């Protein structure tokens, strides 16, 4: 960490002389001081946003929308970095983002394998440092897993060694109004923490919410009093909300339970050697996850896959899969399945998350049976 501070100092000095692009952009000048030779040195902190919300609320879709907005507004010179953290070991969201946004100015870093503050703590710091020193983005967006400990992640970002380097701006929390009547969500300390820390609270998927759901959301906003609240579809975040400062909140005194079963992964999961598929399992924060990566040569029958997906009694399924009808993004939450077509991906990967044990062997058998050919 000491080395990091030195490295970043050197990096930012070099930037002062060479990188006028960064100065024109939205990067924030936070320090003006005289360096050894009496030169005026400008140190710029990278604005950071966190997009949070419970499992399956639409965080990745929101980020895709944001990046598309940036590209459309002719701000292609602005370089963004997105750090995506997932509960499971198989990285799905980064693959989705990559396939949906062909932005040359976007750096994507994946940190799978649990919460950024505990099990994936070390990979998070390494990934973050790599993004800062190698990419020097004009903005960094972090998507923690829906089961991450937000207060602790914020503490990491505001630690002393990042103070001249990162500036935390708005924390955006997406809420599914339908879930507000479900005790599993509202009583979960991870969910409460997300709401407490949020500067922007958005009711997402309002097209799927009832008047009663919206009313409960409005009562929640009344209580929380965030700087901004809105009701949106497709996780639509307005770009100007990103520039709000993050308001400090008190961290709950009882702390939180760290996951203790998960193994940290230093990079995204992948297949080894010439294997055709591999299973990955993890658990923590009261949830179990199981995922698979399948070689891109394997083609799934779309109808059989959809049947399989619909038959699984788990809270969340997401994936990127090659089917006989083309590549598909698969999303299931609370029994509602959706498929979106994409151009292609590096391999097929799918993950299931559930708050109770489920029969992984049986699920796996029928999942793999949906492969109709191995086009090698
Ligand atoms: Zn944690």
From TrEMBL:
Domain CobW/HypB/UreG nucleotide-binding: 47-227
InterPro entries linked to this entry: CobW/HypB/UreG_nucleotide-bd, P-loop_NTPase, Zinc-reg_GTPase_activator
Xref: Pfam families: cobW
CC per GO annotation: cytoplasm
Protein name: GTP-binding protein
Organism name: Pelagibaculum spongiae
